[in-house]
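look at this fold:
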Amino acid sequence: MTDVTRRSFLATAAAGAAAGSLPAPTFAIRRLRAPVAVASGNGLQAVQIAVQRMGEGWRPVDAAVAGVSVVEDDPEDDSVGLGGLPNEEGVVELDACVMDGPSGLAGAVAALQNIKNPAQVALKVMRHTDHVLLVGEGALRFARAYGFVEQNLLTERSRKKWLEWRERRSAVDKWVAPDENGEHGREWFDQYKHKTGTIHLGAVAPNGDVGSCTTTSGLAFKIPGRVGDSPLIGCGNYCDNEVGTGGATGRGEACILINGGSFVVQQMALGKSPTDACLEAAKRVARTTKVRRLLDAKGRPAFQVQFYATDKNGRIGAAALYAGRYALCDENGPRHADFASLYDEPVK
């Protein structure tokens, strides 16, 4: 290759690389009249608390953790924290992660037992270690060191649901439901086959700083040690202080495969609105779901995934595969809103 040809090749390659890189965000940044927050449908009180805390001067990530802690503490919410549905052995295992826009740091815990507020532990990981993710026994020892109190997270309500699941889960084990041959036996099993539950909360302070958090008890009756998208930075949660926040709830494996949270933020960096960015993530899930056992009779995903986003200018958006509602809070107060969705009917 001659020098001229080599120089031409290198110049062409450099131009191509530049064209393929993400453009810098071009938001006309303005100070917000009030903080904003977005969350899954079970986060109505959580977004209100997060906005209140940011109004008091809290960093968005701390405000987000304060908000989701209310849901983690609620024994009636079987998707998060205390009272979360357990793994197949009857043990509650919790996952959570946090991300701080101004510092670019993150912290996470996975398969954490006996501690009802995994998001608070994840915040400690971010602030007090050079790590991002601690798991299992290591995460529990870390939580103990910082004074978190251990307790049995399996409430009587969630224990009964676990026992019912065991009775109905298989025709070849020794557990038999009294009404196993009844007309509703299969119907009960199907409602827990893809039972997921999580709370994601994305927050934006008046100065445009962002922070986010996702916390969950994970897939109901999962194999012990299973980790979903919630504690994986870029999957169930992501933020970029120059762009905004993105997160997800629903089938964690689908979010992991498309890197849902970071994909949403990337789409906003490319110029899409928060809602359109979430819709692009939902489309990507639908496009990449190909295995027959995960599809319904119409060839659509037989599960739900929801995406949430905020940008630095306080715009809020959310979208899902199927119809549903999410929570948000801005200067007009906390309320529920409908997802933009690929399919109009609720997931079956």
